[in-house]
Design brief:
The protein is of the alpha/beta class. About 45% of the residues lie in helices and about 20% in strands.
Length: about 120
């Protein structure tokens, strides 16, 4: 199974993703924003990163850009529910342009999350 870093400022989203992925046998690291996510990734690189887009400190797009610059080819799934006057699809298109290999719009189901993870990890 994969080692996954989940980066989201919303504790309930992190808990939801963690529960689903741990049930599937994955090991999980958590971070509350891109700054902490980059630090956690440096300490222990993950097989997969799942990140929100709109977060304080370092947002998801900046985080994706930094990860791809330092660790080219890192596998990233971006998730967004929109915000700051932008819809989720716009945020996710930007994340894709900067290297997210899968995109998930919030709210999402257990099945949608697992489908995206399988497509990236398998």
């Amino acid at each position: 199974m994969a080692h996954v870093l989940v980066v989201d400022d919303d504790m309930s989203i992190r808990a939801f993703v963690l529960e689903i992925l741990e049930e599937e046998g994955h090991s999980i690291e958590e971070a509350v924003d891109g700054k902490q996510g980059l630090q956690r990734y440096r300490e222990e690189p993950a097989d997969l990163v799942i990140t929100d887009i709109l977060m304080p400190e370092v947002d998801g797009v900046e985080f994706i850009m930094q990860l791809q610059e330092i660790y080219p080819g890192v596998k990233i799934i971006a998730m967004s529910g929109g915000g700051r006057g932008l819809d989720a699809s716009f945020n996710l298109r930007i994340a894709k342009d900067f290297g997210a290999v899968q995109q998930i719009e919030k709210p999402f189901t257990r099945e949608r999350l697992l489908e995206a993870v399988r497509q990236v990890v398998d």
